[in-house]
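Input record (one chain):
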Amino acid sequence: MKFFRAQNVLKALAAGAALTFAAAAPASAHVGIGAVHTFSQGLLHPLSGIDHIIAMVAVGFFAMNIGGSARWLVPTAFVAAMIFGGLLGYYGWPLPMVEQGIGLSVVALSVAVGIGVRPPTVIAMAAVGLFAVFHGHAHGNEGAGLGFAFLPYAVGFVTATSLLHVTGMILSLCLDQLGPTVALTLKRASGVIGGLAGVSLLLGWMS
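The corresponding structure, as predicted from the sequence alone:
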């Protein structure tokens, strides 16, 4: 029974990885991609780029690895800081190296998951919050000048971010059901893959 459960989880992870990398092509830039007026556009946008998917799912994994109150405090810190960063971008406050900050978030969060880093909850909240500001700023810029017309998109974006966090948490729980050795191996593998994807993004944005 455990074997078939493991098979199902691995198949789901493989399918998710395939979908993630298929979505990577349009994700090399953020500001100005597509329309930003409706809830559905905001909901779908984080699912259109490998950087968003990896970073936000990794937050869920990271929170579950730490455990305790971090399971909800760390994702909440990311969402709150992302909203703050979005407001900075919306009102035109400059933030240097936004794309590089996003790429670095993919690398750092993936590595944290891969090697099983378990910092104190406050430090974890501060770290994910810093990265979230870059993610939020990139998309806050998209709504500059739109006024309340941007609000549905922003709500959709925040909703999708939260769902990706929850997805990471559920995947982490699923892996843990496979036993400590298998779970550790798969988490390390996912960390390596995510980290390499982040490095690739950074190199692309710096070229």
